[in-house]
């Protein structure tokens, strides 16, 4: 019987030091999971609107509480990040932005756009009396 050849272990998070590109990739996946959970809240809101005024008042109370604002804040931040990073991925699918400098520049642009778009959405929503 032949002796098994010793192979190196696969690289993992303990081998590599964190980089912006890997952190953004992991965060993109995490925000996708959060957005999936957020669709349950959207369905809850829609069902409550169809169920009648008392049900809707209950859901409206929750979303106007500090916990509701926190949930909506996290959801909107995740939505904007996932949107911006998805656009970044579309450029990658077209074969653009693979150089290290470009990847880091677009990563920082995604983070900046996330903060700006989230702030603009909340300013617009609050100014409309939402």
Tell me what the structure shows:
This protein is mainly alpha-helical and 130 residues long. It has 4 helices and no strands. It has a domain of 77 residues: Fumarate reductase/succinate dehydrogenase, transmembrane subunit (3 helical TM bundles of succinate and fumarate reductases, Up-down Bundle). The longest helix has 32 residues. It starts with 19 loop residues before the first helix and ends with a helix.
Query: What is the third-level CATH name, the topology of the domain at 21-34 and 65-127?
Result: 3 helical TM bundles of succinate and fumarate reductases
Residue ranges: pLDDT <50 for 5 or more in a row? none
Strand-residue fraction?
under 5%
How many β-strand runs? 0
CATH class of the domain at 21-34 and 65-127: Mainly Alpha
Q: Write down the secondary-structure element order.
A: HHHH
Radius of gyration: 21 Å
User: What best-fitting shape do the alpha-carbon axes yield?
Assistant: elongated
Distance between the termini: 73 Å
Tally of contiguous helical segments? 4
CATH superfamily of the domain at 21-34 and 65-127: Fumarate reductase/succinate dehydrogenase, transmembrane subunit
Helix content: over 70%
Biggest sheet details:
none
CATH architecture descriptor name of the domain at 21-34 and 65-127: Up-down Bundle
Provide mean pLDDT, rounded: 92
Chart the SSEs and their pairings.
Layout: H1 20-51, H2 53-63, H3 66-93, H4 100-127
Helix pairs in contact: 1-2, 1-3, 3-4
């Amino acid at each position: 019987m032949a002796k098994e050849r010793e192979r190196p272990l696969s690289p993992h998070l303990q081998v590599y030091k964190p980089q912006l590109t890997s952190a953004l990739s992991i965060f993109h996946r995490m925000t996708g999971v959060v957005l999936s959970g957020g669709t349950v809240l959207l369905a809850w809101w829609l069902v409550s609107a169809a169920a009648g005024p008392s049900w809707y008042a209950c859901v409206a109370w929750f979303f106007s509480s500090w916990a509701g604002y926190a949930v909506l804040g996290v959801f909107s931040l995740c939505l904007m990040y996932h949107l911006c990073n998805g656009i970044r991925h579309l450029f990658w699918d077209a074969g653009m932005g693979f150089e290290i400098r470009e990847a880091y520049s677009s990563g920082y642009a995604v983070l900046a756009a996330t903060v700006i778009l989230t702030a603009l959405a909340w300013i617009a929503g609050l100014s409309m009396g939402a």
